[in-house]
Amino acid sequence: MTIRRKIILIVLPLLMTPLLMTVLVSSLSARNGISIIAAEFLRFKNDTVLNYARSQWDLLMNNGFDSDPEFVAAAKEAVSSFAGTIIRSDTELILAVDRTGSPVLATRKIELSPAEQESLAESFAKELEGWRRLRLAGESYVGQAAFFAPFDWYILSTEKEEVFYAALGQIYRRTAIILILSLAAAAALLIVFSNILTRPLNAMVDVIREIISTGDLSKKVSLQYQDETGQLGHYFNLMTGELDKAYSQIKKYAYEMVLAKNRETRIRHIFQKYVPNNVIEQFEEAPESMLKGDNRVMAVLFSDIRSFTTISENMSPDVLVESLNGYFEKMVDVVLAKNGIVDKYIGDAIMAFFGAPVKGDNDALLSVEAGLGMLSSLEVFNRRQRSLGMPPFRIGIGINYGVVTVGNIGSEKKMDYTVIGDMVNLASRLEGLTKIYHEPIIVSESVQQRVASSYPCRLIDRVIVKGKSSAVRIYTVRESLSEKEKEAWEIYHAAMDLYIRRDFAEAGKRFERVLELLPRDYPAKMYRKRSEDFFRNPPPADWQGESVMTSK
């Protein structure tokens, strides 16, 4: 909004408000005055009719004819005739009704509706006198009302409402014309004066626009008035002069900043290959936190290529590196797609974690989905390997979920954003157990509890890993099961319950049934053999189904 428009919108209401209040008060005063005079005039007529009616009644009383119906009727007729003589316009109406609301006197012919008669009868019953607004013959009337008990009449001297307030309508129309003319005159004067006041500012805006479009800071504003706007233009000219001096220095600094930004982008791009981008952003905001650790609950994933030494012996170094890079690219894409962080490559192994630096609500589920996705991507990778005449890869994946220490571990000269703790070591052990149990993916019980509702899980064993004294439950996970696999897993779970309860004979039969459905199921083969061995040589009394691992 321009200053000129603001001046008009501010000043015009200030000018018009007092005028509007004055006109409004005058109009209301005129309305009240006219209303009072007109109302008193109708009251005078009503009183005149009442007085004449009383004189007729007094005449009857004095002559003893007040009980004679003929003389009473003649007196009423005289009152009716008198009422007609004081009417001064076709719109006036003097009316008298009885208790039923039916007209008994009218200065002109009028037909009342049943509703109008009912309203008059109600006013009669309530003895409402004085100023009244009412409907007669479908039109609005105003007037004065009074009772005349001797005749049992309810007398009204009325005038049509539109005629009664006709003078007020003329006053309102003239007032509106005055207001419109005053508003137009004030607006025209304000436009002229605002143009004069804003002319220096408009000139300054034109100069600023020209400076922006051309970049020429030598442009000056012409000083039109010796007032505040003139001072503003003078100081504006001084400012542009100083800016012109600094402009060359600003361009120099801007050029140097662009060079620095390009160097920073290149360095950042290089470091993103070693440190996650969100970690870099976190430490840019708080550099002092770079050497601090944080304990939190996270999911850690380890994956490793099976028999990689054998594979590498049969491949040239350049082909081996090309295959590994293609493998790592697919695996890393899956981890990143599930909000995971690739911590490091340990030879042909991958270590990743989920839940840092940003904590999620379903880190365990995301880690399992990443593991299953890695297995699916491995199938795609192996199809390409076979098409190129190279050996396929097989991998094992271990996942654990628990409390770890996460942060930048190291010194100011060399550090690594990673996770450490006993829970990380267990995740690594789980990955190693995939070789023993011939399963592509093994997870801990803490992971199983959080994904069992989303993916089918199967208990593999209760193991005491190397370096631990207590047993942990380990599970395998599948993305989905066929109908035969579902049936086999149900039998397997029942067999595991029998096995742990030391019913080895029945457990062996159940595991045999699993092998009939899934002949190559290694856990079923393993537990069938264990059941046979324990049936012949039972385990110790404190045995609870655990197996002790003597190697990593």
TrEMBL record:
Residues 195-248 form the HAMP domain. Pfam families: Guanylate_cyc (PF00211), HAMP (PF00672). Residues 299-431 form the Guanylate cyclase domain. It is found in: Cell envelope. Keywords: Cell membrane, Membrane, Transmembrane, Transmembrane helix. GO terms for biological process: cAMP biosynthetic process; intracellular signal transduction. The keyword Ligase does not apply. This is Adenylate/guanylate cyclase domain-containing protein.
